[in-house]
Every structure is written in C-alpha cells, then in structure tokens.
Design goal:
Blueprint lengths: L1 H26 L10 H8 L3 H13 L3 E4 L3 E4 L4 H22 L5 H19 L6 H13 L5 H13 L1 H9 L2 H19 L3 H30 L1
Antiparallel strand pairs: 1-2
C-alpha cells in the first residue's frame, strides 16, 4: 500500500514539474536552446532529480524539449517557416479528404467523434495539455478516414503528427484559443452530420489557417521580446 502511495506522489510531482517547465518554455522565460540542467532544476524546485527527469521525458514527447549530445536536455526551436509549410499542406489536403470522406461516415464514426469531443473538452478545461494533440489528431483522422485515398491520408497523418507540438502550443496560448478550438470542432462535426460538406470543408480550412496564423504571431512576438 505504501509503495502505491509513493508512486502516486512521484507521478504528481513529475506532472507538476512538467507543467511548470512547460509554462516557462511557452512564456519565453526559457528561450530556444536553453539548457535544462536537472540538478539545478531539482534544487530550485525543491524536489529530487527523478521527477525532473520524468518531466523532461514528457516534454520531449511533446516536442518542447530535445536531447543534445554533451548538453543534455535543451528547449527545442520553434520554426515559423516549418509551421507555415506544414499547416499550408494540411490546409490543402485535409479539406479535400474531408469532402470525399463525409458521405461515407457512419453513425459509429460520429459516436466516436462525439466521445472524443467530450473528452477533449474535459482535458482542455482541466489544462491537461499532454492529451490535447492526441485527441485533436484522432478527431481529424476519423473525419478523413473514409476518403479511400490511402496515400494522401498517410501524408496527412504524418503532417498531423509533425504539427502535434504546435497544436498543443496554439491551444495553450489563451482561453480564447481553447474556446475557439472547442467551438470549431463542435461545428465541424455538426456540419458533417447534417451533410453540409462544402461548409465543413471551408470551416476546416479556416480552422487550420487560424491555428497557423496564431502560432506565427506568437513566435514572432516572443522573438521580438527576447531580441
């Protein structure tokens, strides 16, 4: 029993450390390339190195941190040009796949999407950022899953994985960002349910473009402040 309690405390401390490190990275307090020294962070936060190490592994999975030989963990770079290219490709391909997929979506597909949206809403409101990208990717993937274009779908799934880090960042920027994401996902699924394929495709394009522009503005603003 005591061992289980200790494990729960360790997970809680690691999550809290990840939340604090994520906040510092997102705010620009830790700029791109900043070295995240486990010993110093552990002393500053008053915890052992184990939850710090777990937190850094979690943030590396989110793309916010990367491991560099002879330096250890450093804050990853955020690339405006990469964002522009990845989201432009998504904006071109996802609406095309959606148009082909929507007529073939089944009630079971819509039930699954409703479940994802409900879970997505809970995670957004609870600020559990680690799952935002995963749920966003699952929702988009189901919407396009019946397009019968496997090669294009494979490209889009790869793009969704590559933009996962940026998606989480965009959602975390403000309460307005999370609220708009909720509203756009709800409306997107509603339009698909009612068979408004043209409206759904147009909304999906705006949804992707909005995320792209918000991210580019955020990164440009943060770089101006740190210059």
């Amino acid at each position: 029993m005591a061992g289980g309690s200790s494990k729960l405390r360790s997970i809680t401390v690691a999550d809290a450390a990840a939340d604090e490190l994520r906040r510092r990275i997102m705010s620009g307090e830790y700029p791109e390339g900043f070295q995240l020294k486990q010993d110093a962070l552990a002393v500053e936060m008053g915890i052992s190195r184990i939850p710090i190490r777990e937190a850094l592994v979690q943030l590396e999975g989110e793309g916010l941190v990367k491991s560099v030989p002879h330096k250890g963990a450093v804050v990853s770079e955020l690339s405006i040009s990469e964002i522009a290219e990845l989201f432009e490709l998504r904006g071109l391909l996802e609406p095309r796949l959606l148009k082909k997929s929507v007529p073939k979506l089944t009630p079971a597909d819509f039930d699954e999407m409703d479940g994802i949206i409900a879970e997505y809403r809970r995670e957004l409101h609870a600020q559990h950022q680690a799952r935002w990208g995963e749920l966003n990717t699952r929702l988009h993937a189901i919407l396009m899953s019946k397009a019968d274009q496997p090669r294009t779908l494979a490209i889009v799934n790869s793009l969704l994985q590559q933009t996962d880090r940026y998606t989480r960042l965009q959602l975390s920027l403000s309460a307005q960002s999370t609220r708009r994401a909720e509203e756009e996902h709800d409306e997107l699924v509603r339009l698909c349910k009612t068979g408004d394929i043209r409206g759904a495709a147009a909304l999906l394009k705006r949804h992707i473009d909005n995320a792209c522009e918000e991210l580019k503005q955020f990164i440009a603003s943060r770089r101006r402040l740190s210059a």
